[in-house]
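Table S7 (text form). Paired inputs.
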Amino acid sequence: GKILLATDALFKTMGKSAFVYQQAYRGAAKEGLIPGTRKHGEFVSKIINNTPAQLEKAALEDAARITFTKDNKIASGVAKIKRVPVLGNITATYLPFVRTPLNLAEYSLRNSFFGLAFPSILRSIKKGGAEADEAIGRMLAGSGVIAGGTILASQGIITGTTDGYKQDMVKTQGLGFQDKAIRIGDKTYSFNRFDPFATPIGFGADIYEIYKRMGAIEDTDKYASLEKYLSTGVSMTIASAWANIADKAMLTGIAQLSKDIEQFAKAAEGGTNTYEYALDKFSQQYYGSPYYGWL
């Protein structure tokens, strides 16, 4: 815990300082000052040594962004629920972490072609200048990572999430398939925890899987309707988004909740006492979690 807090504080300090330096040099450039000259040095030093309050606030916000600790409404809402007796314990069991994974997801989306869906990115591009260059540069870099994932998947170096049916089939037959993994020699290693790069790489790999599935439909059903192509593409895209964003170490509780709901529905169909079943499932989750003893 202490090591995590210490490293978090270190990277926040580094990020804050980097942002202030960036804005100081950017401001000097806007003033037409030449690097290496006395006026340029004095201008930059003044901002760094006497950082304006507004710039200090912006630097702290940017530091939170790059360390994935930025506050958001969803995380704040979940935090309030966790304070409620009993309900809070259940929430903490399934959602021990919220803020960091949501920030990781937002970071991956903003720094790719998906960034065009964010109003703040569009405003930066419309504003022009250094802010537009930075926004476009980040989107191009992230999109390049996605493209790299697609290329690596086409070469058989990495695997995506593919679709649930194929995964269940190969796992049942013992073929040793591992999703979201890189192949090195005869072994595969998961890259699912290598964030913030894992999400765009995984999505890039899934783009190739979707492309292959579209080709398979054409080969097996030449008279397939446009609706079939669209429904398959949309369902695989949604599955990819869930697998690459929600299926993380910090959000495994959501995946477990999904499984428990599915099992609860099956139990109800089979005539099992749903109240006793739900209580038993929660007890198993609660007593096996780090939140045991909070009730």
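Next pair, protein 2 of 2.
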Amino acid sequence: PVITAEAADETIECGDYSSDAEEFAAWLENRGGATGDIDACGDVTWSTIPANPALSDGCGETGDVTVTWVLTDECGLTSSTTATFTIEDTTVPEFTMVPENYTAECSDAHPLEMAEAEDICGVIEFTVEADTTFVGCTSNYVVERTFTATDACGNQSSAQQFITIQDTTAPEFAEALPGDLTFDCAADDAAVLTATDNCSDVEVIFTADTVAGDCPNRYTITRMWSVTDDCGNNSSHTQVVTVVDEIAPEFNEALPADVTLDCAADDAAVLTATDNCSDVEVIFTADTVAGDCPN
């Protein structure tokens, strides 16, 4: 018998047809396109080697099989043709959802969503890698998340998500902030302030600058509390304390009044005094103006 048309190889992409199995069955039914004529000995018959062709078990839903069609006449003479049917997968998975890029404060929630993908030919394996780049401080950084989808045949596709974390919030003082004050004689003790921050531990730095006045009990103190977080966000508070001495000393005893005496003056009273700000001493002086006789 004569093979008038050789069987032809056929390669299809996995998932390109509604049913790869139906496409394979049609190729077998059509003998891969092979045809043959009857010969002088009468009718011919077709058979296959193997008798029941089946696709090999490749990756995913792929596979191949080599089939030999044998044309046999009534006298047992044969001719044959061979072809291979292949189902391959060269298509990468396709992402159907990639989490959006976003920017968030370091103290906010940072959702880590998973990407989604589909493949025309089977199961997908996902991997996620995260690469963190710090920008100036530990609370400012960018996370690059790389999603990789790999199908059963090793075809890969990747997508990225960028998450920007930042610290733009200044620390906050925990206590009520002291206002400006004026005191007599001496200043009060400076308040002790603490602070909290949304992303890092912080410490309050206290400084005081004193400007002297015209006496020890007159001066001005400028107090400053300052707190800075790891990323340079700062809060500060200034209080001005003014110390004054506007009250004159007071005599402790009754003050002697003017008097007129015969012949001789009495002894001068001894007076003492107190002051609200300091120790004081009474200075006594007497000035005598002579008359027209000793008495």
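Residues 20-29 form the longest helix (10 residues).
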